[in-house]
Write a structure and sequence with these properties.
It is a single chain. Helix content is 74%, strand content 0%. With 120 residues, the protein is mainly α. It has a domain of 81 residues: Up-down Bundle (F1FO ATP Synthase), CATH 1.20.20. Helix 2 packs across helix 3 and helix 2 packs antiparallel against helix 5. The longest helix is centred in the first third of the chain and has 25 residues. The N terminus is likely disordered.
């Protein structure tokens, strides 16, 4: 299947793959603003630059996975232009029907999950 010249928008795939990581990052980033006390010291390697590096690695691994798994890539291409609310049940159904894809994609995003768990 050929994609349009625009291809799929990276946020469509990353939204489907990493919505939880993004939400965690938003909570992580806003926690210091919500408190009157100075934030507790963060563990090493928990800077915004570290987070950007982890996200870049997850994005690169996702891209490589999709390029090497055309049926999965084709499925995510069908989600272009849909809202998260429209995508969510379709992604859930696809991953339920394809548990190996679910496991592989969870493995790809695991560094982001680990970062958020370590750096909360």
């Amino acid at each position: 299947m050929m994609l349009s010249p625009r291809g799929i928008r990276p946020h469509a795939v990353m939204s489907a793959v990493g919505a939880g990581a993004l939400a965690g990052a938003m909570l992580f980033g806003g926690a210091a603003v919500a408190t009157a006390q100075p934030p507790s010291p963060k563990p090493p390697n928990c800077t915004p630059a570290d987070w950007a590096g982890v996200r870049a690695g997850v994005a690169a691994a996702t891209s490589a996975y999709l390029f090497t798994h055309p049926p999965v890539n084709d499925f995510f291409a069908t989600l272009e232009g849909q809202s998260r609310e429209e995508m969510q049940p379709k992604v859930q159904a696809y991953l339920d029907a394809n548990p190996q894809v679910r496991a592989e994609m969870q493995g790809i995003k695991q560094p982001a999950v680990d970062f958020l768990d370590r750096c909360k």
